[in-house]
Design a protein that fits this description.
With 135 residues, the protein is mainly α. The chain has seven helices and no strands. Helix 2 runs antiparallel to helix 3, helix 4 packs antiparallel against helix 6 and helix 6 packs antiparallel against helix 7.
């Protein structure tokens, strides 16, 4: 989603509600609904603070997204991208968020790899124990 937002910000140059609608057409649920809801709220209330609208919408969809807390916090910061008037500032924040998410994914993968080794050892031990009992 972050890469899609980055691409749309860089190349489309259309108004933000239209950008979110366009992005929602390429996203899966619940992210498509999130983008559509933020877009409609922005059109209804043009004076609203965009990061606040983004955070409110993310709060409504948190259960459906089922994200770890680190990733959810990064998602909340994406709303700040839309409030910057400078494209460079927005892209820098998106790049920082992508790096942070990449680090979180790598740590989750490392944790999973360690648990996988443990589970494999337990399975082999249980199998050997079963063989010994059956003999």
């Amino acid at each position: 989603m972050l890469t899609a937002i980055e691409g749309e910000l860089t190349y489309s140059r259309c108004p933000l509600p239209e950008l979110l609608i366009h992005l929602s057409q390429h996203m899966k649920e619940p992210y498509a609904d999130l983008l559509l809801q933020v877009s409609s709220q922005m059109e209804e209330n043009r004076e609203a603070d965009i990061p606040v609208l983004w955070k409110e919408a993310c709060t409504r969809f948190r259960r459906q997204m089922n994200l770890p807390s680190e990733v959810y916090e990064s998602l909340l910061r994406v709303g700040e991208v839309f409030s910057y008037s400078s494209l460079d500032s927005s892209l820098q924040l998106l790049e920082y968020t992508k790096k942070k998410l990449d680090a979180a994914i790598r740590s989750q993968y490392a944790e999973f790899a360690g648990k996988r080794k443990l589970y494999c050892c337990l399975c082999y031990t249980a199998g050997l124990f079963s063989i010994i009992i059956l003999l």
